[in-house]
Design a protein that fits this description.
alpha+beta; 3 domains; Heat Shock Protein 90; 5-stranded mixed β-sheet; 23% strand; Beta-Lactamase; Helix Hairpins; 5-stranded antiparallel β-sheet
């Protein structure tokens, strides 16, 4: 009897200790500044959420507990499985997922999960860390490093092209000068050779400009020059794809303070996306296979702006993914063909220039991107360039 009483006492003490431990955990869980969730591993339903989770997601505790984690994690099941496999391969104890907030914003989060038993129920204890800004910065850095490598290559290619091109131009000029007056047809051919080699030389000059590091510094730059150099680089590809390119760029656009190479990068990305959308809708030539680029100044609340519009009549952006197109790593294209970073990096560049990047789109009608840049930017050029 004595032993039995002792056993009961021990059990009661263990039960009391367990209850105290769970009470301490509950208190820590609710008051901790980190975003925390308790999740049913079988159904995925959120069993409990702390105050930090309420604040982060924008839902009340009751509303969160009425949802499954699959309602917040917007990746489809196959991509969730792929991320879990990547975590195993990379030997990391966390997952990286896009979570949607109550207001519709998408945040990239690190999720640290471990099994836990609470009130005799097996649950997943998940700590969520918002890493959206870090991921964007890392992506931006990788893109900068990639651009530096491309710039070095472009510089070498441009130099290699330059010398033979100059030779061809000179020979075409000599041929034109030595032809007899009646050889007008040959003179026209020589003129065409000279014209085309001048165009190649211009491309080489733009490649060199793209490669120069000094273009990374903030400087007063004519927007007309940035537009023309960008269009020179993209025109060959546009023409090859049988796309009609309509351009309306005034000659008297004001200068703006910017990093010219970065703005060119944004424009190249928007034009490349327009080309891809048109090729997807019209694999071959079509009269409607048109891309349009326009630039015009405007004023808003006393602020002077330049608006660059890139418009296409391609497939358009489906309504269900429009909120996600600026998210890092998100792409509607083949993963082998796109990193999903182009628009995210472009948005970051535009915001760094105190500008705006917005769009309108209709499926099977086309897409229109608006790049708005302030004319009177408040950068201190001397200070900005010294910091670099």
């Amino acid at each position: 009897m004595i032993e039995s009483a002792r056993d009961i006492t021990d059990i009661m003490k263990m039960k009391s200790a367990l209850q105290e431990s769970e009470a301490r955990f509950r208190l820590m869980f609710q008051r901790h500044n980190a975003v925390m969730l308790l999740i049913d591993p079988e159904s995925g339903m959120i069993v409990d959420a702390n105050q930090a989770a309420e604040k982060f997601y924008g839902y009340s505790r009751t509303a969160l507990c009425a949802r499954g984690i699959q309602d917040i994690n917007i990746l489809p099941p196959d991509e969730i499985a792929a991320e879990r496999q990547r975590a195993i391969t990379e030997k990391r104890n966390h997952f990286i997922f896009p979570h949607q907030l109550a207001i519709g914003d998408i945040r990239t989060v690190e999720v640290f999960s471990s099994p836990i038993e609470v009130e005799q129920k097996k649950l997943l204890f998940s700590i969520i860390n918002d890493v959206t800004r870090r991921i964007q910065l890392e992506a931006h850095l990788r893109q900068e490093q990639k651009l530096e490598s491309i710039g070095t290559l472009a510089s070498g290619v441009a130099h290699e092209i330059n010398n033979p091109i100059m030779g061809v131009m000179n020979y075409a000029q000599l041929i034109s000068q030595r032809l007899e007056p009646e050889q007008e047809q040959l003179r026209e051919y020589a003129g065409e050779i000279k014209h085309e080699t001048e165009r190649v030389a211009e491309i080489a000059r733009n490649l060199l400009a793209f490669a120069r590091h000094e273009n990374q510094a903030h400087s007063l730059t004519r927007m007309t020059d940035i537009m023309n150099s960008t269009l020179t680089l993209i025109r060959t590809v546009i023409k090859r794809d049988q796309i009609t390119l309509n351009v309306d760029i005034p000659d008297d656009l004001p200068q703006i303070k910017c990093r010219a190479q970065q703005i060119q990068q944004v424009l190249m990305n928007l034009l490349t996306n327009a080309r891809d959308a048109l090729n997807q809708r019209y694999p071959k030539y079509d009269a409607n296979k048109i891309a349009t680029v326009t630039v015009h100044p405007f004023e808003e609340e006393g602020q002077r702006w330049l608006r660059i519009t890139v418009e296409d009549h391609g497939v358009g952006i489906p309504a269900e993914i429009r909120e996600r197109i600026f998210d890092p790593f998100y792409t509607s294209k083949d993963r082998a063909l796109s990193t999903g970073l182009g628009l995210s990096i472009s948005l970051g560049i535009v915001q760094d220039h105190h500008g705006k990047l917005t769009f309108e789109s209709e499926e099977e009608e086309g897409t229109r991107f608006y790049l708005d840049l302030p004319v009177d930017n408040d950068w201190d050029l001397d200070k900005s360039n010294k910091q670099r």
